[in-house]
Automatic annotation (TrEMBL):
<feature type="domain" description="Solute-binding protein family 5">
    <location>
        <begin position="91"/>
        <end position="481"/>
    </location>
</feature>
<comment type="similarity">
    <text>Belongs to the bacterial solute-binding protein 5 family.</text>
</comment>
<dbReference type="InterPro" id="IPR039424">
    <property type="entry name" value="SBP_5"/>
</dbReference>
<keyword id="KW-0813">Transport</keyword>
<keyword id="KW-0732">Signal</keyword>
<dbReference type="InterPro" id="IPR030678">
    <property type="entry name" value="Peptide/Ni-bd"/>
</dbReference>
<dbReference type="Pfam" id="PF00496">
    <property type="entry name" value="SBP_bac_5"/>
</dbReference>
<protein>
    <submittedName>
        <fullName>Oligopeptide-binding protein OppA</fullName>
    </submittedName>
</protein>
<dbReference type="InterPro" id="IPR000914">
    <property type="entry name" value="SBP_5_dom"/>
</dbReference>
């Protein structure tokens, strides 16, 4: 899985959507206050924010390559793009001060802010924007990430650029009108192009630094007093073992951070960073699931709806999983609430949704298959399953061996798989086998399953929003030729494949609707049909939850699991 933020069962992209105190709509939440906490700003020598992350190192510091949330958080500190999301998940001009869209939706003209500079003081202009987009689409960069077309594929000649059929999109798809104006020509009008540009793939990078250091350029971001980027911070130090130290970028075009340093610190796992937090060695940490319940009553506890949904995937090319009654029977046999309590300490939110709560397109009126609740419906599950068996000429005794594959990186994943298998056995009377593989192998297998009967039959997976738009959850997953359609929706031999293809046509039509209300209505109807078809078997939406020192003032966390660049100006350390 994932052309965007990579999501595992235990970590966020997200990275992406890579993905629940619950926030209204798409809002951000501040840490609960306490009467004993001062808001008086501490001296400059205490303005250091220590930020723990749960990996030995970030996967990549290169905006054109990174696909995981841990890397993207670091990238958002030092790099920005033409447009980005604010803490309400609205698309806002960033390096661009404004933009125009042609009447036919095929031409976007971006007007840059005046006097833009890279963090080393070098001028940044439209040529740098064009270079960065073209670089991300180049075969060399795209082959390392595979994500360029997901976010930039609408640009004219973009597919040909990734394949090496054209040497550049500059002059055709991306046109430098003058140093302050860049124009992007699209091959298809859509309503989500600006949303796709908020993903780091198109963020602006400094050509001279890349020319000098080649593929190792991100190891030199601290050289020359901090170079290569244009975000609110620049890199002071970067070690692949001890983390990253950021300091304010004096050449940043927006409001400057009040913090004097942010230390992005690696820890091998959630428990280690949690222990470091309790020892006052870091200012923010994720919470291990075993400590969730006791931590949730602390005054420094914070919880945010995250745009991440985890599900059971089913391969429509595997019989009898291509039978809709079999799939609905499997879905209704599960009590998602029990699964979440058994495997995840009740910390996550059971759901039947594909589009998550907290973003545009969420449908509060969506029904689970058969009109059931997240608790399922055992009686209806048996009825539908038996109908499916009859249609396939099967009995419970002749039901073929189906294997549920799950990532082996956590006990929680194993607990989820075991709970679901037990429910299918007790409700439906069938035995589903299980096997555990590495997360990276699972990603590889998902890609190989697209268009094939294997290697996956059923599997546990998750998706985190790349950008908060239904297209990222619907067309990108289930559309005709979609890069993530390992489920083979619309590509199978079932009797319902014609209806699936018709729904794919509706997806393509919704993608280009300019009327926001009509587009929302179309996506809601499509999602309901996908849920009824059990295109995914959603299990839960995972929130982000953390502990944050109460002397950290002004910090907001968004459901997109990112901190917008201009929000850093509001963050400071209080006296403590």
């Amino acid at each position: 899985m994932r052309s965007g933020k990579k999501i595992t069962t235990m970590m966020l992209p997200t990275l992406l959507c890579l993905f629940g105190v619950l926030l209204a709509a798409c809002g951000g939440g501040s840490v609960p206050g306490s009467g004993s906490v001062s808001k008086t700003k501490a001296p400059d020598n205490q303005q250091v924010y220590r930020w723990a992350f749960r990996l030995p190192d970030i996967a990549s510091f290169d905006p054109g390559i990174a696909t995981d949330n841990t890397s993207i958080q670091a990238i958002n500190m030092a790099f920005t793009g033409l447009v980005q999301l604010d803490d309400q998940l609205n698309i806002k001009p960033q390096l661009a001060q404004s933009y125009d869209i042609s009447d036919n939706g095929l031409t976007y003209t971006f007007h840059l802010r005046p006097n833009l500079k890279f963090s080393d003081g070098t001028r940044l202009d439209a040529n740098d924007v064009a270079y960065s987009v073209d670089r991300a689409l180049s075969p060399d960069i795209n082959n390392q990430s595979g994500v360029a077309l997901t976010y930039l594929g609408l640009i004219k000649d973009a597919p040909e650029r990734t394949e090496g059929k054209v040497k550049s999109v500059i002059g055709t798809g991306v046109i430098v009108k003058d140093p302050d104006t860049v124009v992007m020509k699209l091959n298809k009008a859509t309503a989500y192009f600006l949303g796709a540009l908020t993903y780091p793939t198109s963020f602006v990078v400094e050509k001279s630094v890349i020319d000098k250091y080649g593929n190792k350029w991100t190891d030199h971001l601290a050289d020359n007093g901090g170079q290569g980027g244009n975000g609110p911070f620049k890199v002071k130090e970067y070690s692949h073992t001890t983390g990253i130290k950021f300091v304010p970028n004096d050449n940043y075009y927006g409001k400057k951070p009040q913090l004097k340093e942010v230390d992005y610190l690696p820890f091998k796992d959630r428990q280690t960073s949690y222990n470091a937090y309790l020892a006052d060695q870091v200012d923010v940490t994720d919470i291990p699931l075993p400590q969730y319940r006791q931590s949730s009553s602390r005054p420094d506890f914070n919880k945010t709806d995250a745009l991440t949904v985890f599900y059971v995937g089913m391969n429509y090319q595997v019989k009898p999983l291509d039978n809709i009654n079999i799939r609905q029977g499997l879905a209704l046999a599960l009590d998602r609430d029990t699964v979440v309590k058994a495997a995840y300490q009740g910390a996550y939110t059971p759901t039947c949704h594909i589009v998550p709560k907290g973003q545009f397109g969420y449908n509060p009126d969506l029904n689970c298959p058969g009109g059931a609740s997240v608790h399922g419906d055992k009686k209806k599950a048996v009825q539908l399953f038996e109908k499916g068996l009859q249609e396939e000429g099967l009995t419970r005794q002749t039901f073929p061996q189906i294997t549920l594959t799950y990532p082996n990186q956590s006990q929680e994943s194993a607990n989820e798989a075991a709970t679901e298998v037990q429910m299918w056995k007790s409700v439906l009377g069938i035995n589903i086998a299980t096997t555990a593989i590495s997360q990276n192998t699972l990603y590889t297998y998902q890609a190989q399953t697209q268009g094939n009967k294997g290697p996956l039959q059923m599997w546990l997976a998750g998706w985190g929003a790349d950008f908060p738009d239904p297209q990222d959850w619907i067309t990108l997953q289930f559309g005709a030729g979609a890069p993530n359609n390992a489920y083979n929706y619309g590509d199978n031999g079932s009797g319902h494949v014609a209806a699936q293809k018709a729904l794919q046509d509706q997806m393509s039509a919704a993608d280009v609707m300019s009327d926001k209300a009509a587009r929302l209505n179309a996506y809601n109807k499509i999602e309901q049909q996908l849920v009824n078809d059990v295109a995914w078997l959603p299990i839960y939406q995972r929130p982000d939850f953390r502990l944050l020192k109460q002397y950290v003032i002004g910090m907001k966390f968004t459901s997109a699991s990112i901190i917008p660049p201009d929000d850093w100006a509001n963050v400071y350390i209080a006296q403590h």
